[in-house]
Amino acid sequence: MPDQPNPRRPKRGTYSPKPETLELLRVSGNPINGLGEKTPRRPSPFFWHPPDQHPYGDLQVVARQSSRACPDSGPAFMAAYSYPELIPVAEEQNPASAEQLSAEATDFALSHEADAVGIAAMDPLYVFEGYTVEEPWVIVLGLAHNYERLKEVPSDETNGVGVVDIGDQYAKGTRSSYALANWIRSQGYTADPYPGPSASALVLIPPAIAAGLGELGKHGSLINSKFGSGVRLAGVTTNMPLVATGPSRFGADEFCATCQVCTRACPPGAISEEKQMVRGVERWYVNFDKCIPYFAETASCGICIAECPWTRPDVRPKLLTTMARRMAV
Ligand code: SF4
Ligand code: SF4
Questions:
Q1: Pairing of strands 276-278, 281-283
Q2: Ligand nearest 307 Cα, by number?
Q3: In sequence order, which ranges of 3-146 are alpha helices (DSSP H)?
Q4: Residue ranges of the 4Fe-4S ferredoxin-type domain (predicted)?
Q5: Is residue 181 in a domain?
Q6: How far apart are CA 288 and CA 271, in angstroms?
């Protein structure tokens, strides 16, 4: 039986932001993101950074309030923000090879709630302006959504299933990244965890792509070959000797070129049909000014990642086969 239409999603073209939300969007986020810039540069601190680092602190408050108004979301996000202690770095270093340490770190993460793991060499472009990361490696962790719960988005006071799943994945990312950082520290190497949803030094999607965890989708999020767009990220930076794992291409970028599922499903019409130049890279881009009022009013939205055909467990295997065939030609 086909799914019933989700009553919490407005029909395309019928949404307009509340005036009080629009008032808080005091400056456009697109220039801050580097839209139209032809030279690569580090990203500027943005939404979910501490509010003194960008102009959207009041919008973050609206987004948090709309999330917390949904049933059961409070404990889920409290778990995401419960940071365990980091242990001191052990004096003696594990002398194993980079290959062996990479395998051990990956196994450790997979047995501590991560659903996917990739390793990328650090690039200064992965670090937000104003922050410093000394470590030469980043381990990226993927935390997979439960599709049956994710497809309930957007959440509101009557139904919090979707946003609770978002909070649960971030909480897994917090526990998993801290556990991995502490394991690496116990092996005598430095390690720092970077879970979401709050942002700090590390941008996560570019190293995730470099590490082979997926491709960038038209909706601006990662598409993973095993979990589609239903995946959250966390990172761990370290000086442990490691071996890079990616990138990996399975045809998501090519598929996005002709797919319009997310552009049609996005209530404010924020997803661009064409790639755009952003900080020196031509790539898919979401118009921040259109997305963020809806995102803030609807408990972090999530419609585009839930609707993406790659996210649907019944569709993803067929897409992988089709795109593997097309990529081989
Ligand atoms: S998260 Fe933003 S881009 Fe995605 S559907 Fe919602 S409003 Fe559109
Ligand atoms: S819905 Fe379609 S266009 Fe959008 S990200 Fe997914 S595959 Fe790409």
A1: antiparallel
A2: 2
A3: 19-24, 30-33, 57-68, 73-80, 98-110
A4: 246-276
A5: yes
A6: 9
Q: Of all protein residues, whose CA lies closest to atom 4 belonging to ligand 2?
A: 262
For residue 214, the CA-to-ligand 2 centroid distance in Å is 13
Q: How far is the CA of 172 from the centre of ligand 1 (A)?
A: 23
Atom of ligand 1 nearest to the CA of 302: 1
pTM of the model: 0.97
Full domain range(s) for residue 254 = 19-83+95-328
What single letter denotes the amino acid at residue 22? Answer: L
Q: Which residue's alpha carbon is nearest to atom 6 within ligand 2?
A: 308
**pLDDT (tens digit, 9 = 90+) per residue, 138-186?**
999 999 999 999 999 999 999 999 999 999 999 999 999 999 999 999 9
**How many domains is the chain partitioned into structurally?**
1
The DSSP call for residue 15 is: -
Q: Is residue 4 domain-resident?
A: no
pLDDT average, residue stretch 113-137 = 98
Mean pLDDT (the chain) is 96
Nearest CA to ligand 1 atom 6: 301
